[in-house]
Amino acid sequence: MSFHHLRYLALLVVLASLAPTACSADSGGSTAGKRITLQTRMTTEAKARSTFTTGFGWDVTLTKAIVAASGLYYFDGPPPTALLAPHKPSLRERIGSFFIGTAYAHPGHYQAGTALGQVDFGGSTALDLFASKPRELPDGEGVTGTYRSARFVLASKAPKDDTVAGHIAIAEGSAVEHDGSSRDPIHFRLLADYDDVSMNVNGGSVDGCVLDEASVEADGTITVEVRPTIWLNLVDFSKLEPGTEDAPTEAHDPGFSQGVTALSAYHFSYAD
Amino acid sequence: MLSAAPHRTAGDLLLTVPGMALSQHGGEGGAAQIFFRGFDAVHGQDLEIWAAGAPVNDVSNVHGQGYADLNFLPPEVVKRIRSAPGTYDPRQGDFSVAGSVWLELGYDQPGFTASAGAGQFGARRYFLAYHPEGWSEATFAAFELYSTDGFGPSRALRRTSLVSQAELPIASASLRVMASTYAASFASAGVLRLSDIESGKIDRFGSYDEHQGGDAARSQLVAELSHGDGDSRWSLAPYVVLRSMRLREDFTGYLVQPFTGTAAEVAAANRAAEQGNSEQQINDATTFGVTGSYRRALPVFSRADSLEAGVFGRLDRIGQSQKKLSIDTSQVTLDELDSKIIASDVAGYVDLALHPIHRLVVRGGLRIDGLAYVTQDNGGQGQGQRRSAQGAHLGKKATADYGILPALHAVASYGDGFRSPQARSLQEGESAPFTTVQSFELGLRLLTERVRATASVFRTLLSDDLAFNQVTARNERTPPTRRTGVSAEISAAPRRWFNVSASLTYTRAEFTNTDGGYTAGDLLPYAPQVVGRTDLALTPTLGRLLNRPLTAHIGIGQTAIARRPLPFGEMGHNAFLVDALVSARLKEVELSVSVFNLLNAAWYDGEYTFASNFERGSLPSLVPQRHVTVGAPRTVIGSLSLYL
Questions:
Q1: Which residues of B touch A124 (CB under 8 A)?
Q2: Cα A271 to the chain's mean position, in Å?
Q3: Which residue of B311, B416, B499, B501 has the fewest CB atoms within a 10 Å radius of its CB?
Q4: End-to-end CA separation in angstroms for chain A
């Protein structure tokens, strides 16, 4: 082999070295799924803005509701409410059960499954549920997939701006018994601290919230609707002093803490 | 070209095989992750590896199927690497999904060799070998001790190995006996989140968990008796291999991962995860086996026609466990697996070579493998269970080689292969499911006195596959896959003192069915699509000094990796690495300098996508993120060698 050939050989070596870089240009195809950006918005259920009736039979009118949260997560596991949905028997099962009844086992425990999306508020953030317009929250990140359930993470400490006066949830307003038996309205200011809610949920995480099932293939907006009516559903106002409009009765009510940590108090949906 | 560029281990030598790329994500002492022709072979699940006549792949290793640790061999004693891409040869058995490699040992420096080296990051290496004059290069003994503090925290390594082999005639036969023993302990820095590196939150050579690492030991004995004359050849080679391995790795920190089980089991798993997901894996195995073959002339169309029949058998007794440890206290928090396994694989094959017409050689054969497993669970979810499973695989192989010109051949090949299952995944009485493989290849081969070149197109179909799953952070079964690619390589020796080789391989790996979150047509993640390698060696004689010849060695090895598909439509970073070796030898004395990563490229050795949480108590990021293992920076090691 001559030096003439050596030059070709050297050229070949250089080409072999550089070819992978040249080949790094997109040659088509990709792996499954893609990353997406999820805008995040918080709204308040409409009926919380007018008088509503609780499970304990009180007509409540809210004037203020604030919750401190630190983040949200979205999962592909179905929420527990889906697991509780009644089984729809087939025709064959219905005929069979005419002779022998069918027993259904415990529907199982909620399994969050795979996390598909999340948003970190960057610290404890106060969400004023009576703000005049929906609250825009930081953008979240996610991946494509079928979104089915969500986690609402209550803040482990109050926000620095002290909007909630050192607490992580506040509800203010008045309540009268729905049947009209109470003399005067109860003016209340219900409070929940992290210690109160952590008795109900580990790490302040309200797990298994419903996210309306959505096949998410592109960027979009996740809306979390907070439902203060659920917060107050189990509060027994008869145990509270009446208070006044100017000096409402302050209380750390266990029913309120349970309501703040109820998974049905937070409902999620996706729109592209 | 094995000695052209510097190599730290025998495993590194696999870089010279066209289409092969390596990652050392588990630390310098762990088995390398192997990528070959579009396969992420992990630690060996898709590449059958033999060394000195004994298999290197571990059956059902707890860390990964086919785990193959080549660190027991000093690179100097690997004389030849024979590679066979695809599954076209009846001698290829379990794990030869992407192909097979055979490492042959030898050392040709007559007399004694004593070498001492020192380099950056506290590297120290001592190498001692002898090869009796007048004996074949297959007769030698070598000792190596290597230690390094590593290029960052939790990267120290210490290993010692002894390899000896003798080849001697016994009457008209030949006996080769090989014995080796090896031990290593090493630390591992583990993975880092790419976003943490890019934001400066952690140094690129840092570690989230400095308790990672492991140890390994291996002893091997092979005796091969063979005989050959003009018309026939036979061989019989029993072997025994003892191996132990302990790994401690932490991929996910304090992440609470999805866990399937009873409510009590889920609660226990979640409690353990709060202490961290440091996983300790132990695998102790003893392998007994034998290979044998007999080939004789069988003139059908030509006197060159031949028939070979061969047998293969191995029995592995394996004890393995996996436990979750607290990151802080190292106490066991969850007993995940504790199993005893007996695995056997016996096979027979026939291989026929016929020359039906001038210039045409047709080779083909059949191979039948029978595999059996007995697994007893002494811990974990299956505690108390004992179960057995068996299965068999018939593989058909054929190659046609047509000589277009005396130096130019066209070759077409077809082969069936398989990958055995993880024994612990099998149920009682299950007919051991195999991943079946079909390989096709068309190519041209040029072979002259000074140039050897091949170009080929290939396709490989798998009945199902394994891919790193971003949810479970381990390899999980996937739908069927297809790999289609082209490969070209050339080796030339234009001068006695000048050798060069170059190769380039492109492979597209994709799913062919839709299932489990994968869609037909999606790319398979992790294995790079483009792998290039060049090796160049200049070994001129510079003259004479002190009445002795003065020779030099200048060697360069370049590796290029590009287009590494990652989940969610992303691509990994490309890498271009250059290693160089310069030495001068005055007969008995040699001074050399090895430089790894000469250009000091800031590269990522491994890239993975999964969820993790390394900050305890923080609001964790649960969406899968890019994680990397950081490749070594420029490292210089100098050596002084004496040849006596």
A1: none
A2: 15
A3: B311
A4: 66
